[in-house]
Specification:
It is a single chain. The chain has a single domain, classed as Outer membrane efflux proteins (OEP). It is 69% helix and 9% strand. The chain contains nine helices and four strands; from the N terminus they run ααααββαααββαα. A four-stranded antiparallel beta sheet has the order 1-2-3-4, with no helix packed on it. Strand 3 and strand 4 form a beta hairpin. Helix 1 runs parallel beside helix 5 and helix 4 runs antiparallel to helix 5.
Length: 402
């Protein structure tokens, strides 16, 4: 039953990461593409086969593969009287009492641990992709804002040129407008370079160019994952350690061996071969310091893994609460940024009209333009912060991008 659960988890993980979901966000598509390129994803099939093979080995009739024993004896190199002896036998390693069931329990626990480890690796990699994705979105938003500021500064400069030519403004005003344009061009170049670096980092994960898309946050989590992958991974490791400790207590000695053999021999040349059969049992001595050391080591690993799972569960619960509060704060910040941006846009419209009528000087007009730009930047950052906060919330709850 445990094995079936482990295999089902692995299959579910592969389906989630390989197939596009309906209405998935661009982030989810980037994550699915990036996961296909990961060595851990490529090795899942072979690891699953190894887990199945360990379970099959625990179901075998013998504790280890049988061994073939061959013996030939002759006096050809000394007396040379024709004495010959041939023996063929098979040695069968025998399970210790309780060892077979314990070995199967360990193999099933390892299969479940493989499923938990794979899901945990997927979630950890989701954090890497999420960080790269939102870093690119933030850099892209800065680049778009810088481009808009450059266009606005160019339009203002052209307007000042016309008014200086008409004699409405002084040459110093043109210098100020030119300086504002050069500053906007420098900021645009800097933002463009930062966006390119962030995009290349993301593309190094996906392995293909990422298409620009409108900001699309992940859906807000309605509930946590049934079993958090990180916690499940540690719990599965603890279960493997406990099962291994139980098996170590049973394996108090090396496996006995049952040997069945047949022998044909003759005392001298010309006499007939005689055949005999033999049944042998080999019983190794056990116990002692070596066994005690194995049991103590296995118990220590079980205790350590169990406590690690408990501490991780506490940390995940606190992290989910903290991230949820950050998302709530991000919503308040976004609402304030939207109001500020709306007021800044209105003021820019008022002062633009006032400047064209000659009622406002250029320094005031430039200051209002800067305030509007900063308000738009704050709004963009607030939107991305909320979207990123929702991603972190999903990450804390153990949910993959969708």
């Amino acid at each position: 039953m445990r094995t079936a659960i482990g295999m089902a988890s692995l299959i579910a993980l592969q389906l989630v990461l390989a197939l596009p979901a309906r209405g998935e966000t661009p982030l989810a598509g980037a994550f699915a593409q990036a996961w296909k390129r990961q060595p851990a994803a490529a090795a899942l099939g072979e690891r699953r086969q190894a887990a199945a093979a360990r379970i099959a080995a625990a179901d075998a009739l013998t504790a280890a593969p049988p061994a073939l024993e061959l013996l030939a004896r002759s006096d050809r190199f000394n007396r040379n009287l024709g004495a010959e002896e041939y023996e063929v036998g098979v040695a069968l390693p025998v399970w210790l009492p309780g060892e077979r069931s314990g070995a199967r329990a360990v193999a099933e626990a390892e299969a479940e641990a493989l499923a938990g480890r794979s899901l945990a690796l997927g979630l950890r990699f989701a954090q890497v992709v999420r960080d790269a994705w939102w870093a690119w979105q933030a850099a892209r938003d800065e680049a778009l804002l810088a481009e808009g500021r450059q266009l606005a500064a160019r339009r203002l400069r052209d307007d000042v040129v016309r008014r200086v030519t008409a004699g409405d403004l002084a040459r110093a005003d043109l210098n100020q407008a030119e300086g504002a344009l050069e500053l906007a061009l420098a900021q645009q170049a800097e933002a463009g370079a930062a966006e390119a670096v962030a995009r290349y980092r993301l593309e190094s994960l996906t392995g293909e160019p990422v298409a620009a898309a409108d900001l699309q946050p992940e859906p807000e989590p309605r509930e946590a994952a049934a079993a958090h992958p990180l916690l499940r991974d540690l719990q599965a490791q603890a279960d493997v350690a406990r099962r291994s400790a139980e098996l170590a207590r049973v394996q108090s000695r090396a496996n006995p061996e049952l040997a069945v053999s047949t022998r044909q021999d003759r005392g001298s040349a010309g006499t007939a071969f005689e055949q005999s059969w033999a049944l042998a049992l080999r019983l190794p001595f056990g116990g002692g310091p070596r066994h005690d050391a194995r049991v103590a080591t296995a118990n220590a690993e079980a205790i350590e893994a169990g406590m690690a799972a408990e501490r991780e569960g506490e940390r995940l619960a606190r992290e989910a609460t903290a991230v949820r509060e950050l998302v709530a704060a991000a919503r308040v910040r976004l609402a304030a940024a939207e109001r500020r941006a709306r007021l800044a846009v209105e003021n820019r419209g008022y002062y633009d009209k006032s400047f064209r009528f000659g009622e406002t000087d250029l320094p005031t007009r430039l200051r209002i333009e800067t305030e509007a730009f900063e308000a738009e930047r704050a709004l963009g950052r607030a939107r991305i912060a909320l979207a990123q906060g929702i991603s972190q919330w999903r990450q804390a709850l153990g949910l993959l991008p969708e």
